[in-house]
Amino acid sequence: KGLLVDAAGTLLLPSEPVAEVYLHHARKYGCTLSAEQVLDNFREAYNSPWGQSTIRYVGSGRQFWREIVRRSTGCSSEALFETLYDHYSRGDAYFVTPGAVEAIHRIRARGLKTAVVSNFDTRLRRILRDLEVEHLWDAILVSAEVNMEKPNPSIFVAACEALGLPPETCVHVGDDRRNDVHGARDTGCYAWLWGEDVLSFKDVERRI
């Protein structure tokens, strides 16, 4: 068997609310929005059609995130973008979901193979290294590196191939119903929605 895991929102969570981090730095450049407004703008920008029509993260993802910062804060300062981009390049901007490391160790000890399958830019590997969890995975599939993005079944196929397993023997866990659950099931994998089908990595360990 194989376990595929989404990164942001499942394995990794932000250390501080994203809107508050954006606003803290944007105020230095004249931003007068509230945290709620920044959060609403962020969600609208992130989920807008222009972000879903093509692969979001090309290489470093800088073009995508520059637009997200601008639309979230109303500020076009390159210095602001660089500050935020650098902040989210480091492991200390995130924390690993409690219980994940221990559960993944036990799952691997049972002989299962593990992979991260993430829509992310090329910063992800550094973040996993910073958080000392890169070694937990037999494969890491980053959309910006493989030029494929969930829910495209191709990225799940590539993950299964990297593990040397057929899709029907793999389970994918992620927090996005469309990208993670539908995408994985379209490939032939099992899929569990984080926060609904499973609430913790102990649940994952118990069910797999």
From TrEMBL:
Cited InterPro entries: HAD-like_sf, HAD-SF_hydro_IA, HAD-SF_hydro_IA_REG-2-like, HAD-SF_hydro_IA_REG-2-like_cap, HAD_sf
Species of origin: Chlorella variabilis
CDD domains: HAD_dREG-2_like
Cross-referenced Gene3D superfamilies: HAD superfamily/HAD-like, Haloacid dehalogenase-like hydrolase
Cross-referenced Pfam families: Hydrolase (PF00702)
Transmembrane feature ranges: none
The protein's name: Haloacid dehalogenase-like hydrolase domain-containing protein 3
